[in-house]
C-alpha cells in the first residue's frame, strides 16, 4: 500500500520537473513591452541643415568628376577542374517532373549549370564559375561569362557539367566536350 502513494509522488514530481525544463525562459513582461513600444515609436529623421545638404551635394559632384581607379578585369580565381560538358534544356525527357525548376528551386535561365554530385562537393550550390572550352570551338561564346551552380545531374553521372540552353538545337550543337570550370571568388 505504501508503494502506490510513493510512486504517485515520484510521477508528479517528474512531470512537474520535465514541464519546467521544457518551458523556455522568457524575459520579464516589462522588458518585452518596452521593446515593442520602442520598435513602434515613430521618430522623424533628423533633417540635415540646408547648408549641410549643399556641402554633401558638392562633395558627391567632386567625387564623380575625379578619375576613378581602374577596375580589375580578371576576377580572382579559385579551384579549377577539367570535366566533361554537355548541354540540356527544359524538356520533360531531359529533366525530372519539373523541367523549368532547378534543384535549388530557381527557374532555369541562361547562365545556370548543373553539376554531377562529385563536383558539387567541390563547387556547392550558388558558386559562381567561369567555363573555358578546351576544344577552342566555343571560346568566344564563353569568354567573360559567369555561370552559377544551381542544378544537379543524375546520380549516375560523374565528373560532368551540364550547361542550360534555351533550345534543344543549341543543346545538340554544344554536344559533349572537355571544359575547364573555375570558381570565381
Which labels suit this protein?
six-stranded mixed barrel; single chain
Provide a quick synopsis of the model.
By secondary structure, the protein is α/β, with parallel strands linked by helices. Helix content is 34%, strand content 22%.
What do these coordinates show?
The protein is an alpha/beta fold and 185 residues long. The chain has helices at 3-22, 29-40, 50-65, 117-120, 139-142, 168-174, and strands at residues 77-88, 112-115, 128-133, 147-152, 160-164, 177-184. Strands 1-5-2-4-3-6 form a 6-stranded mixed beta barrel. It is flat and about 80 Å long. The mean pLDDT is 77.
Number of helices: 6
Q: Mean pLDDT across all residues, rounded?
A: 77
User: Low-confidence spans: pLDDT under 50, at least 5 residues?
Assistant: none
Derived structural class: alpha/beta
Largest sheet, strands/sense/barrel: 6 strands, mixed, barrel
* Overall 3D shape: flat
Strand order of the largest sheet: 1-5-2-4-3-6
Q: H/E series, N to C?
A: HHHEEHEHEEHE
Helicity range = 25-40%
Q: What share of the residues does DSSP label as strand, in percent?
A: 15-25%
Tally the beta strands.
Answer: 6
Span of the ends, CA to CA: 74 Å
Q: Mind telling me the C-alpha Rg? A: 30 Å
List the helices and strands and how they pair.
Blueprint: H1 3-22, H2 29-40, H3 50-65, E1 77-88, E2 112-115, H4 117-120, E3 128-133, H5 139-142, E4 147-152, E5 160-164, H6 168-174, E6 177-184
Parallel strand pairs: 1-5, 2-4
Antiparallel strand pairs: 1-6, 2-5, 3-4, 3-6
